[in-house]
Amino acid sequence: MDFELTQEQRMIQDACRTFSRQRILPNARQWDIDEAYPRELLHELAKLGFLGVPVPEQYGGTGLDYLSEALVFEEIGYADSSVRTTLSVQMSLVELTVLKWGSEAQRQQYLPPLCKGDWVGCFGLTEPGAGSDAGSLSTRAVRQGGDWLLSGQKVWISNGTWADLAIIFAQTDPSQKHKGLVAFLVDTKTPGFHAQKMKGKLGLRASDTGELFLENVRVPDSARLGEIGEGFKIAMSALDNGRYGVASGCVGIAQHALDCSVEYGKQRRAFNKPIAATQLVQEMLANMFVETQAARLLVYQAGMVKNRGERCTIPVSMCKYYASEVAKRAADMAIQIHGGYGYSNEYAPERLWRDARVASLYEGTSQIQQLILGRHLTGLQAFEDEQQRVLATTP
Ligand SMILES: Cc1cc2nc3c(=O)[nH]c(=O)nc-3n(C[C@H](O)[C@H](O)[C@H](O)COP(=O)(O)OP(=O)(O)OC[C@H]3O[C@@H](n4cnc5c(N)ncnc54)[C@H](O)[C@@H]3O)c2cc1C
Question: DSSP alpha helices (H): ranges in 35-176?
């Protein structure tokens, strides 16, 4: 297996590193304190082609491969996971879902403004009563003539109050369970659609997270994404893209934790020598180094499978599970190496630690990834009901 990046991949990596270290990283602490970053940043990212990396040029994208997408997420994730989360949702969960499941008219309508940053997209799957068990949604879609009426509530929706376009998953027939789900492309200005900011998050504070309320939101049948009953399949295929983005961003968190620990360890002195000269600190650095690179290689492996157009659920689950756990461990070790200063937001590890924590929760918890991998290894089902059985097996 050849892990050498192509010239084109190195170019986008360099461009994204330069931009994110100059424009994002120096502001990340303040944006975290303010619990917001300027939306205008999306236009800056779009101008450099970072908002539509794997989307074909004919739809306004950059037309690069999935490894390039991972490199962008790693670099942005290194600087600020809040910005990376916005990008992941926009690119992986929304653009790639419209690209794969949308009609030609839907692609032409939505992809160019999303890739340009003129529109923000969000992905409305989770509800107050349904997270991991995504087949048991209670948001309803009721047919009325040629239209649909959508009613229900979504929680924890990244980009929720910023979004111009929401992919909303809803149930058409509760007796059908996951087979009754359908996905819609909803303009958030439609009457009956209301979004409200969720505050008080442990991390990802600069990222917009919202609760969505839908009260008889009327959408035409042309707003439907895919067929009736395909909603669950669409959600799972979107998560194969989303989890890959989360994993790539986590490699960035772990690399940042390592870099700042090496730097701090060399200049901080104790017992008359740099703490980085002590064996126990070097042990932590070595572990961070190896685990970060292992996570990166798992991401690259998944990227290669995606580039070949093959089913990627298993390599994506592997890298999402491993990289999110590695990011948490690396940020924790970075705090340890920084001692008391690691506990302060004057230094990066405190924010890295808070931001890393969500990665093993959203887009499928670590337990859900373990169950997907366990099912793959054994052929035995740990999920308890039919919907969850599909969750473990759907591409
Ligand atoms: C900051 C943030 C941003 C988010 N952004 C989005 C977004 O943009 N769009 C969106 O739709 N959602 C989003 N989410 C929601 C996220 O995807 C869910 O929180 C996640 O899927 C877990 O669902 P839950 O919170 O309902 O937990 P639950 O499903 O209630 O799980 C609680 C615990 O039980 C465990 N568990 C559940 N079932 C099993 C099982 N069968 N076996 C073993 N353990 C199990 C879980 O692993 C977890 O540890 C976001 C969440 C956060 C925190």
Answer: 41-47, 66-79, 81-88, 96-101, 104-116
Against a cut of 0.90, is the pTM above it?
yes
CATH 3.30.470.20 is held by the domain 232-393 = no
Q: Residue 272: which residues within 8 A CB-CB, separation 6 or more?
A: none
Residue to substitute in 35, 87, 136, 156 for testing ligand 1 pocket (most ligand atoms within 8 angstroms of CB): 156
Please name the CATH architecture into which domain 122-227 falls.
Beta Barrel (2.40)
Q: Please count the residues of the chain.
A: 395
Radius of gyration from C-alpha coordinates of the chain: 21
What percent of the chain clears pLDDT 90, i.e. is strictly above it? Answer: 94
First to last CA, the chain: 24
Digit-coded pLDDT (tens) for 186-210: 999 999 999 999 999 999 999 999 9
**Res 253 pLDDT > 90:** yes
d(CA 149, CA 186): 11
Q: Is residue 363 flagged as an active site residue?
A: yes
**Residue nearest ligand 1's atom 37 by CA:** 132
**Domain spans of the chain?**
7-120, 122-227, 232-393
**CATH number of the 7-120 domain:** 1.10.540.10
Return the closest-CA partner of residue 352 out of 264, 240, 274: 264
Angle at CA 373, nearest 5°, toward 246 and 370? 65
Given a cut of 90, whether residue 278 has pLDDT beyond it is yes
Which of 69, 95, 291, 363 is catalytic? The answer is 363
Residues with CB under 6 A from ligand 1: 89, 123-126, 131-132, 156-158, 201, 204, 209, 358, 361-365, 367-368, 371, 383
Which among 38, 47, 52, 51 is positioned nearest to 82, based on CA atoms?
Answer: 38
Residue closest to 393 by CA, chosen among 378, 377, 376, 370: 376
